[in-house]
Specification:
The protein folds into 2 domains: 150 residues, Ribosomal Protein L4, Chain: A, CATH 3.40.1370.10; 50 residues, no CATH class. 34% of the residues lie in helices and 14% in strands. It has a 6-stranded mixed sheet. Strand 4, helix 5 and strand 5 form a beta-alpha-beta unit. The longest helix has 17 residues. The relative contact order is 0.18.
């Protein structure tokens, strides 16, 4: 499929053929949902922890005699129902990561790219470069383009000046093509790919 290529000044500089297998995949909301859940679960730290009964410092002696006091029998003061005791069934350090086959992850990324293309929210940029790292200069160009919520994906490396200029603009994310992922694509309204990024993504996903 044909797609126009523009420069950062919003001038058309040519056309590019988008691979149907990468940018023309059918809609699969179920796959996108699974992928987003996988990404969010994987980045959870899982470092929450409470002390269990065996980890509380203290005596293991009975607090009082078993019989003759009229009170309920107790084992020791570290029991969960005692003040200062351990926590019963509390959180432990663990991984929240889910299992997701590599082919399903690739399908999800193709589906996300295709969804943006189908919605008319995919823009191909000739290159994402800036002469200086000044935010004000890039912000003016972005405003003219009408990009309020955009993810820009470059080739193997992001241009240093462009990255510096873009990082202080609200609503703009910049990633190299290795970092392209379903969650970031879906959380922004517009997806902008450089020509280099298109080539690399096709090599990666075809």
């Amino acid at each position: 499929m044909k797609c126009p290529v523009i420069d950062i000044s919003n001038k058309k500089v040519g056309d590019i053929d988008l691979d149907e297998t990468v940018f023309g995949a059918p809609s699969r909301p179920d796959i996108l949902s699974r992928m987003v859940n996988w990404q969010l679960a994987k980045r959870q730290a899982g470092t929450h922890k409470t002390k269990q009964r065996a980890e509380i410092k203290g005596s293991t002696a009975k607090p009082f005699n078993q019989k003759g006091t009229g009170r309920a029998r107790q084992g020791d003061k570290k029991a969960p129902h005692m003040r200062g005791g351990g926590v019963a069934f509390g959180p432990v350090v663990r991984s929240h990561a889910l299992s997701m086959p590599r082919k399903v992850r690739q399908l999800a990324l193709r589906t996300a790219l295709s969804a943006k293309q189908a919605d008319g929210k995919l823009i191909v940029l000739s290159e994402a470069k800036a002469k200086s790292g000044k935010t004000s200069e890039l912000a003016k160009k972005v405003k003219k383009l009408g990009w309020d919520s955009v993810l820009i994906i470059d080739g193997t490396e992001v241009d240093q000046n462009f990255g510096l200029a873009a990082r202080n603009i609200k609503g703009i994310d910049v990633l190299p093509q290795q970092g392209a992922n379903v969650y970031d694509i879906l959380r922004r309204d517009t997806l902008v790919l450089t020509k280099d990024a298109v080539e690399k993504l096709v090599e990666r996903l075809k």
